[in-house]
User: Fold these one by one.
Assistant:
Number 1:
Amino acid sequence: MEIGAVSVAVRSRANMPFIVKRAVIKGHMSGFRESSLVSEEEDRFAGGMPSTITAVRHGQSESNAAFDEAKRSGVSIALDRPDGGVSLSPLGREQATQLGRRLAAEDPPDLVLSSPYLRAVQTWELVAAELDTSPEVRLDARLRDHDMGQWSGMNLAAIRDRFPGEAENLRSRLLTGWRPPGGESLPDVADRLREVLEELRAEHAGRRVLIVAHDSVVLMLKQVIEDIPTDALAEFLPVRNASVSIWRGSKAEVFNDVGHLRESSF
């Protein structure tokens, strides 16, 4: 799924990446520690989360490249392939290698959680080739991309052609709990991620965790970790291919950073 291609029409922040500086106040749902404004008693996750959570989006996929070309040409496109089997494009492989070099400059991960989708697995393999470490690696289906149901593999023009009158729901309601036919909502994705974070809290406190996944996963991690209102999420789109986002507790040190990518890799 390419969230930015749809939702950025609602509201976007052009100057990515950006540093997030916001305080956690008493009563925040996430409760992850970010500042001294939250006491030990008030912060239900205090001392019980990974020391860092780094989330990266896969490099450009063959579907991403096809959608970009279709958008430039103004044509509709419907890809007849399972979403989980879409591989990286040549550019995406280059981006993943550059991503690996960026991550090699950070403290190495203790645990890697990857979406089982091919483009994410390939991204991790290329990242791993640049790292001087052998962390524990797990595939987790809860990190899969947003399921678009009957609309999977279609760009917005194709959805308009095949589902007249429904395309505007994708633009206006995707972030609010609406589901495409046979698919899932972004809050459904958030529910999956809450389960993942609870397990990290219980089993991997104090460890450095790397998540290799998709734009929908990175976006909804931001909502769950930082307790961001749904109506503010469009501000953080699009989540770029091979971007890096890092959290310590509930504080995003950086979000959607692509400074490591060469200009030719955009």
Number 2:
Amino acid sequence: VERRAAVTTVPVLVVTKSVAKGTALEASMLEVAQWPAHLKGFEALKAPEAAVGRLARIDLYAGEPLLDAKLRQRGERGDLNDQLGVGERALSVRVNDILGVPVEDILGQNVDLLLTRRTGDSAASSLPVAERVRVLAVNDTGSADRPQPIRMLTLAVTPEQAAAIERARSEGTLTVLVRNPRDEKLSPPVVAPSRVETTPVSSPRPIAIQEAPVELIVGSETVTP
């Protein structure tokens, strides 16, 4: 009976799901797989600790081995163009101050945008504008001693999301909600109540009144001028 020699394997770090370029890697996105040593013609990462928190330099696909060159170094952000995926645009928006959230905890993460709009009677209404939007950059102007609240975000959005955000900015204030990276469920679409455009009603045309002819009585004859 012919026996096959045992295949020697080596640990290789792979992604368990597709990851968009510019996304910060989470431990839940990674796993260590055993690859045949003779197929390993590259130097892949071997442990999740080497990749967690780093940004993907390119789009990654499920089961793909992680090479160091595919990830940005810690603290490296790169150009915005490098962080945008196919069909994405970079849009900077001002949001309500985000207090107590370190920059490193929101950069590269997915967030939701909420529009808060006030009516004339001081009542407020809120509705989601865009969900699972990736943060590319923040206004990091603070320091360790005097941290500043985050007021401006640069987001990776689709053209449709950009149009919705631009409309929302003209109607109220935007609030950012930091999203759990494992939460991929989207809210049902909400139709924002549109402003009612009143069409001026034209005044009714005056009814032409047919005036009765003036009759002049001259003697025994009636004369109509």
Number 3:
Amino acid sequence: RQYPTSAFNQLITLTRRTTLGTIRNFSLSVLRFIGLIIFSLFMGLIYRDIGKDASNIISNTAFINLSLANIVFVNSVAVILSFPTEASVFLREYRANCYSVAAYYCSKLFADFIPMMA
């Protein structure tokens, strides 16, 4: 399909709009932050004394993998669960040939992943 703007412009515009929506939804941001704090405390208790030596390399690797999986899945679920509320707007704008599906989903992921990585 041909779109009136480039894929990069679509991505920038949609990311800006999604970021504003995320910032305006203060309760969701607070709930995510509280969940992150609880997960961090839980992981801190589990992996408190693993140390820095090579004998605990499996524990260190497990901690890193579990932390990354948490970041990915928590944010992916947020994107998936928010779609039904935005479906009517998305379908109207997609049918009007405003942007591609790929630009929409990439912008949702960028806007939701980057704040949680910090």
Number 4:
Amino acid sequence: MSYINLIYGGDTSASGVPVSSCENLFQYQRDREEWLGFIQTPAPSPLVEKIKMEVMLLVKAKLPSEDDLGSVELYGTRQDAIKDIEFSRIIRYRVHFPLQNPLPELIRLTVNGQVLCAATENILSSYGIRIRLEHTLFLELSSLQQHSLSQTGQLPQQNTTQQYPVQPTQQETIQSYKTQQSYTTQQYTTESPIQPQIFTTSEASSFNSAQYETETCGTPESKFGFSLLLIGGNGITRGFWPWLVAIYINRPVGGPVFQCSGNLITARTVVTAASCFRSSKGTTNINDVALLFGRFNIFDSTETGDKLARVQQLIIHSDYLSNDLTYDANIALAITRKRVQFTDFIRPICLWEESDSFSNVEGQLGTVVGWGRDSYGSILTATPKRINSRIVSNAECLRSSETFRYITSDRTFCAGGGPGERATCNSDSGGGMALKINNRWFLRGIVSAAIADSSNSICNQGSYIVYTDVAKFVSWIRTNLR
């Protein structure tokens, strides 16, 4: 194999050490008798499945050996890197160069396909041999749960002894000419990533028969039931409400935080509120959404038996407009990439099968379970609480406050907030109201909106709560089932 040995251009200090084009990310440092490259990059989202670091170098001399092209490796151990990711700390790498004189110059740093840094034009236009060094650290989804959950609702920790594979460093030599496209001397096979999608759909008449669990839905294991009465709602035992889903959103500051509740209706479909993902500021990036099934105590780092899933599609009803004061059609479906396996703690709830007439449910008690605000003022409770809320007429809801005129429609209903009744709250958003029919639970409402308490901007527990009427959207849900 031939190499071009012509040296041209480039920035070099008086000591012979190249001037880094990205001093905040890449630096040359002396380690005993050897010059090394040190990389430090911001921690990526904890929801990523892998971290692929690519380092492109320019060598202005013939390589001593084609078998040693250098390498890039983690500065510390894999466990150190995992902790750095979880706590949003800097991730560090060490680069070993294939030769010490002259030292290679940095052309580009890329993480997961995103260019973090590129060299100046005179380096990019230089003659020489281009080397690409690659390191990939694979992260299992369960590693998200190694982060201790704080009272702010960050994703819980889960102890695990599972080993994570680290892909060996791959080395690629590129013979480079100034005016010629580069080509590789090694072939790599990579898995095509799943392309997440966000859909906005309206009602459709067709029926998608996708795996609606008619035989197992709405029936928790009989051994699970209520625990002692707790302030701010009845406590339940784990497994009593197995379709309850915790929805987490990864934030730029603070990492994954609890966002909403959801309701499992098939092995891949969760129904929740559209407002959990869309606001006046835009729609949540689908890669920042994670679903936690079978979770009970969201503050207990030792709890096991839950399942974490990534989202492939967010299907938001086309009639939902976040910049409108009304909460009409505040409903969305989150479709997981893979089917979740049903267990004692993970089961689907039944879709509403009765008439969609509101008169059939007016005055009935619906059951809502969630981690919402309690009587002590906590925004989140450690374990879910159960409340019974009476469904009231639209007229009664409107009479209670003029505000409801702007946040209700003919596809919503009001419940709770009566004398001696506890209402659901902010953190219950997206959770379901269910009615028990013939010993099976059926989903009738989705927690949608509440009137804020003027003293703390949190929901007024003495006021009615607005629910999306699921019965009005059954055909839309069935059409989009996965």
